[in-house]
Specification:
With 182 residues, the protein is an alpha+beta fold. It has a single domain, classed as Beta Barrel (Cyclophilin), CATH 2.40.100.10. It has 3 helices and 8 strands; from the N terminus they run αββαβββββαβ. The protein has an 8-stranded antiparallel beta sheet with strand order 3-4-6-5-7-2-1-8. A hairpin with a 3-residue loop joins β3 and β4.
Amino acid sequence: MRMLTCLALAFCVMAGAACSDQPASGGGDGNILVIDTKYGKVLVKLRPDLAPKHVERIKTLAKEGFYDGLKFHRVIGGFMAQTGDPSGTGAGGSNYPDLPAEFSQEPYKRGTVGAARTADPNSANSQFFICFTDSGCSGLNGQYTIWGNVIEGMDAVDKISKGEPPVVPDVMEKVYIKSDAK
């Protein structure tokens, strides 16, 4: 009888949690990155389950205002839009140390956000890219850290000026964590 009571109690607890409208731990607006562009807002769901160190770095830099005004310096149609370099050349980064790779089996697809790096897998810092298509970034699977997925605003990403670098680069006007919005 005690076993039956315990099972019933466990079921009630699990059913209540499943029906709750509260975000799961690690979710909510604290794990939504907002990128304001002249084309509209891009909302990125951060993935600490895949890349906790990268997500923490992105949050830190966003809270510091590091990304505000930075250019999309490398934008290749059918592939990706890259940003996050204060020099605007693709060779820069933040003053923080580089991050160790946090590769996963998660596949790259349209809207996937990954950490840019050099040939050294442990060289990601502040730069990142957003994939334009399901197939364009598929060659990066398992080789570049995925730390987010665009959940709203891919229409804005699609409008970013193309080029390496673009003749007139678009910028991230403001980047912030949604829960920090005032």
